[in-house]
Design brief:
InterPro entries: Glyco_trans_2-like (IPR001173), Glycosyltransf_2 (IPR050834), Nucleotide-diphossugar_trans (IPR029044), TarS/TarP_linker (IPR054028). The chain is of the alpha+beta class. It contains 14 helices and 39 strands. Helix 7 packs parallel to helix 8, helix 8 packs antiparallel against helix 9 and helix 12 runs antiparallel to helix 13.
Amino acid sequence: MTKPLVSVITPVYNCRDTVATALESAFTQSLPPERIEVIAVDDGSTDGSAELLDELALAHEQLTVLHQANSGGAGAPRNRGLDVATGEFVFFLDADDRLGPEALERMTAMARRNDTDIVLGKQIGVGGRKVPRVFDETVERTHVLEPGSTLFGRMSMAALQLFRRSLIEDAGLRFTEGVLAHEDQLFTAGAYLRARAISILADYDCYYWSAREDGTSSTQTGGAGAADVYAIISEAMEQAARFAEPGPVRDQLHRRYFNLEVFGRLLRLYPDAPEDERKITYTSCRELLELWLTPELMRDLVPLCRVLAHCVLHNLADEVDTLARFHRDNGSPRLHLEEGRSFQKYPFFRDAAVGVPDDCYEIEAPPTVQHNLAPPAWQDETLLISGTVVVLKTDEGTPDVHLIVENGEGVQHRIPCERDPSERTDEGMTTTYTAELRPISEGWPDGHWTVRVEVAIAGHERTIPVVKPKDMRVPFVIVTRPTDGARLIRALPVRGRGALVLALGGDLDAADLPEADASLTPQNRLRVRIGAPAVLGSGPAPAMNLVLRHPRDGGADIRAALEPADPAHLQADLSLVRARPGRWKAHFELEGVGEPIRVRLPKATGSLGPATVSRVPPRRVSVRLDEKWLTVSVTDPLRRRLRGLWPGRSKKSG
């Protein structure tokens, strides 16, 4: 008889509605059926689950069903399943979950390929179930005792994983019996600490982990009592200490228990628990902190946990309750900034009567600064840049604000900003500022100049890019000088969102003319209107023209000057009487600045015309508005008729 490769063990208690689906996912695995044995242990069910299991066993030869009196948790039925398992590997499948079709084949192959004792297959949360944050990438071989490893703190202690059975038996590992939750803490942690190596399979959905719709799972209903939990956690931390000498590796193992079972339970359960549970929780947490919290681990805690640890260790029970309720009701606190240091203002910050040290509240990260740009505007030859800076999560102080403008050659201008007094907002202290940039009068050289904002407050200094929103347009300007001719100053990116850059010099871009539109006049002339660019400086304004170009004849340009139509627009009316047949492309020309650029019609669709522009010679035009670029099509109806009469004539004669 072929020995099973995998033993799937499923504890069952009142899961009649889901257990068939769970077991079916094991029966239909991609591995051959004889390679999988399924062991279902009924733990005294009263809803018909036991009878259903017996029926399933008649239909599936690979299913073994065991019955026992209710034991009060999943530990005992899992242990009984282990007693009869014969597979090379063991997988624990809960009765309300299911496996992916290829899960066992993929996990066993990975274990054999890497000679690993545990494979953690990717878990998918169902019905709001949260899964551990370990499945970002597949890891062929790792271990929780490796220096710097974060696996022990990120994994779940639920035993819903693939284990090599020899690891379990050689170490004598079994589940804690008679508890509603945490029964797998010592088993799973013991296996991880003793394993030769561990694999993480993250590129296949192996396990669908469900939260019960009726909220009746042991974890959903609160799990085991505090006395049972802390008896297990105390033993678990001692177990971890046996496998790691004092130092960083032991601390990284113990950090898990402090975060989840000490600080996590103090913050989640302690405030509203019955008095006896509160007393056990508080006393147990204090014992664990006194025994295992090292100065190095204390420094690595977040401020809230540091303050909690100090209060517990100094027998400040009322303050622990206040901290837990503050965290539940308010979330993250505001910051106090002082001489380059940042403190989270949890309760009792600098309360002399309580005496929690400042170090408990301090964070290393500098304050976060948010910047919002207002539309820049030209005032004579000065570019006004304004916006708001928000020092997030602060409620005190007014920052000093400068703009830093720098080109690619290291030339930098540090420009002071006029600012209004800061205001308290939900986000933090908000300050409005305005800066005046004078690239023309100060003679900044051509090139790209990046714009950043520098914010200084209480000894902290942050410099961040000035970002132009996607829908904000900063019009280009034309600078003129009597001797230097015309020069452009543009804000980039012209379209879209991105870091603000001032481009001095260079050529126009089609995106500089977003307001262009086209029409045909009553005289059937092509009329194009554009937004009038600002012209600054003491020199004469350069000529601006609308130019039509025939792609087959570089000398056939048709042009007309763009003249003021109103204070905000320029307009050109262009006659098409002399236009030869073909497709003419419309350009905008700024004399003395680069090459002509194509005219875009970003909001236009359809076409204009056709219209007759001359009868001798005959000319008809249509203007396409539904293409990327403005294009004028000119046809000669008479020539088209003649071609129809002499179809053999060469196209070159036209």
